[in-house]
Amino acid sequence: MATVLKANPREDLKGSATRKIRKSGYVPAVLYGNKIESQPVSVESVDFLKTVREVGKNGLFSLDVSGKKKHQVMIHDLQIDPIKNEYLHIDFFEVDMTSEIDASVPVHLTGESPGEKAGGMVSHLMYEVAVKCLPSDIPEEISVDVSDLNIGDSIQIADIRSKVNVQITNEDEETIVTVQAPAAEVEPEGTEDEAEPEVVGEAEKEE
């Protein structure tokens, strides 16, 4: 059974009304798509959190607006208060299940790098990969195995294309992860070998 999230229309869009919505345990949001007009709505914050945990941030679910119509949607944008860790605003995008869309998929590193064991540092450079596919085919994440990476090795987009079942729109040469050499030790300043700086004009003063 498809996941359903209930939503209520928002008539008053003033800032005071928006704050009141948040205080009452709801999150202001907007529903839009290529075939529908933009519609302000609100959803219960606890129910929304349960939905995200169930389907993931790239998952599809039904948004039931006032029990009148269900829209097949995905989360297009999510604003969170970094201090209070509360949801501030949500963008719900109604998808056409027969048309491909662009989406960003998180990258998850797996395995343990031999280069890291040897003292190197695993540098995760790309945390998301851009894909284009049908909404139902969007992966929750893309796993990249670093088990074969030694110091100086890297994994680029070209290396994972054949391992992913959807079209990746990033360039082949973009680097996802690399293993860097240990940082060189910095020599302390003021060694004994350093020559004493010559004071220009000192001889002239003595004359």
From TrEMBL:
In what residue span(s) does the Large ribosomal subunit protein bL25 beta domain sit?
101-182
GO BP term (any one): translation
- Return the SUPFAM superfamilies for the record: Ribosomal protein L25-like
Listed Pfam families: Ribosomal_L25p, Ribosomal_TL5_C
Q: Which stretches make up the Large ribosomal subunit protein bL25 L25 domain?
A: 5-92
Q: Which InterPro entries match?
A: Rbsml_bL25/Gln-tRNA_synth_N (IPR020056), Ribosomal_bL25/Gln-tRNA_synth (IPR011035), Ribosomal_bL25_b-dom (IPR020057), Ribosomal_bL25_C (IPR037121), Ribosomal_bL25_long (IPR001021), Ribosomal_L25_dom (IPR029751), Ribosomal_uL5_bac-type (IPR020930)
Highest taxon above the source species: Bacteria
Q: Where is this region: Disordered?
A: 182-207
UniProt keyword rRNA-binding present? yes
Can you tell me which family this protein belongs to?
A: Belongs to the bacterial ribosomal protein bL25 family. CTC subfamily.
Q: What is this protein called?
A: Large ribosomal subunit protein bL25
Organism expressing this protein natively: Halalkalibacter suaedae
The gene designation is rplY
